[in-house]
Design a protein that fits this description.
The protein has about 250 residues and is mainly α. The protein has a domain of about 140 residues: Serine Threonine Protein Phosphatase 5, Tetratricopeptide repeat, CATH 1.25.40. Helix 5 packs parallel to helix 7. The protein is rod-shaped, with a radius of gyration of 58 Å. The termini are far apart.
Length: about 250
């Protein structure tokens, strides 16, 4: 009975091995013929249905996902492949993770993956080349950012200078306007003072007239009369004949 069971297990095991070999070969053929969807199905069947996986299967499955533009699943399977003790496959998986990050412009992350790839396999010339290339790009971007920052600072400095000049002009203009307003106020105040002074003098004259019981109107009549008398006197002086001097007689 035990012998029969062993024979059955051997047949089952042989069938599984045959199926694994068949799917593996089919997946590889599909991959090299660029039928990536078929390749993914075969590798997934090996992992999920036959519970068979290794670093090579994960690496090739990741390649298939990447070439099908399924970056997320590619990253997941490259990470699985990088867990192996096979340094060559580990180095390739890390290199691919570096490539993905470089493509997405995550240069610091890409540089880190390339460095790990070189540590895993120092003979990986592609990772060495990519490492130096990305390192140079990072340095150039830092230099460019510094130059841009310097330009921005200079621009801000010029803008602030223009702003200060504009504010100074505005303040000068406001100062002139304030001065003009002040002069106008002073002129207005002087006129008011003159008016008040004149009014005060008039009030003072009226107060003096009140003291002698004379109205302003009567004072004006008297003043006009005096002016008339003075005018008539001057006119009379003009009409008097001038007496000729006899030069033959002495002055005395």
């Amino acid at each position: 009975m035990i012998l029969i069971l062993n024979i059955i297990l051997v047949f089952i095991l042989n069938d599984k091995i045959d199926e694994i070999n068949r799917l593996t070969n089919s997946a590889e053929k599909s991959f090299f013929s660029k039928n990536y969807d078929e390749s993914i199905r075969n590798y997934k069947t090996l992992i999920d249905s036959l519970d068979y996986s290794n670093e090579k299967i994960y690496l090739n499955l990741a390649h298939s996902y990447l070439l099908s533009n399924d970056t997320l699943n590619a990253i997941e399977n490259y990470n699985f492949a990088s867990l192996t003790e096979n340094n060559k496959i580990k180095s390739i998986a890390l290199q691919q993770l570096g490539n993905i990050n470089e493509k997405n412009k995550k240069l610091d992350e890409a540089l880190s993956f390339y460095k790990e790839s070189i540590i895993a396999d120092n003979n990986n010339e592609d990772s060495k080349y990519n490492y130096e290339l990305v390192k140079r790009r990072i340095e150039e971007e830092k230099k460019k950012n510094q130059q841009n920052n310097k330009k921005d600072q200079n621009k801000n400095s010029k803008d602030n200078q223009k702003k200060n000049q504009s504010e100074n002009k505005k303040q000068d203009k406001e100062g002139k306007e304030d001065k003009n307003n002040q002069n106008q106020d002073e002129q207005k105040q002087n006129k008011e003072n003159e008016k008040n002074e004149k009014k005060s003098k008039e009030e003072s004259v009226e107060e003096k007239l009140k003291k002698i019981n004379m109205t302003k109107k009567k004072a004006e009549m008297i003043l006009n009369a005096l002016n008339n008398n003075e005018f008539q006197y001057i006119q009379q002086l003009k009409r008097k004949p001038s007496k000729k001097t006899d030069k033959s007689k002495p002055d005395w």
